[in-house]
Amino acid sequence: MTARITILDTISDPGNPAKPNDDSFGYNEACAFVIDGATGLGDRQYMDEAGSDAAWIAQHFARGFQDQITSETSVSEVARNLSQTARAAFLSRHENVPRYAWPLTAFAMLHQTRDGLHFVGLGDSCLFLLQEDGAATMHMAIPGAYEYEQNQARKHIARTGGITKDGGALGNSETLALLRQHRERQNTPESGVWTLGLVPEAADHLVSERLDIRGKAYAIVCSDGFSDLAVLYATYDSAGLVRTAREKGLRPMLDELRRFEREIDPEGLRYPRYKQSDDTTALLVELTPGS
Fold first, then answer.
1. Smaller CB count within 10 Å for the chain: N or C?
2. Can you tell me the distance from the alpha carbon of 1 to that of 203, in angstroms, rounded to the nearest whole number?
3. Domain 3-289 falls in which CATH fold?
4. Phi/psi at 248 (nearest 5 deg)?
């Protein structure tokens, strides 16, 4: 028995209205996904098509997934081919870019195949699943990613006094050096941290989990900007997050998130993070059992 994917609501909002939204999303009959472009750490922008390198790579994968993913296709093969295409496009124009400036993304996907529904992902985007009986689960590719980032952000804030102080995370030389060091090691066997980008081998490391859907279920597929409502601000547990989205829609939840970021804790002293407001994307999905 497989499930039918029905999109009930979507939202995608830039953390800074003056800057590009580095998130993308898409869906078709066989999948629903969110792609979160990582903030660029280079000294300049390299790809001009989308406003930022992160937006460029996120949109590249979003177009490819939406056009190519079916219930029969291998997500890893599609991801590998899209990575090869992106790598050729980027490095043919910019041969000597330091690895920390290579664009990359996290993603989370619901994928319907002939043998059922799967969570597929890389990085810190995630999926919250609410079953008909009230049981709820959270799925992401890197357990502990949120705790690691919060701990690192806490150290940055201790050095600078707040998110907007000392030029922000990218303006503080010590923080920027640490972020670049971490980014440089991504997509290597030594780090074990794999993301979508210019390294086709990352496709060998996709995390895939079969979802046991019992009756009608609901899910939120989201970037880490939206999941902060649960994992950083602890306003909801997994069940409450999905249930509230069903009852109120995603827009009021985005407004609630922005209040935490911009009014309640604008400097990250209570809820440590690198950015005051993050790009935020979420899809609310209904999963109906098929025959």
1. C
2. 28
3. Phosphatase 2c; domain 1 (3.60.40)
4. -115, -20
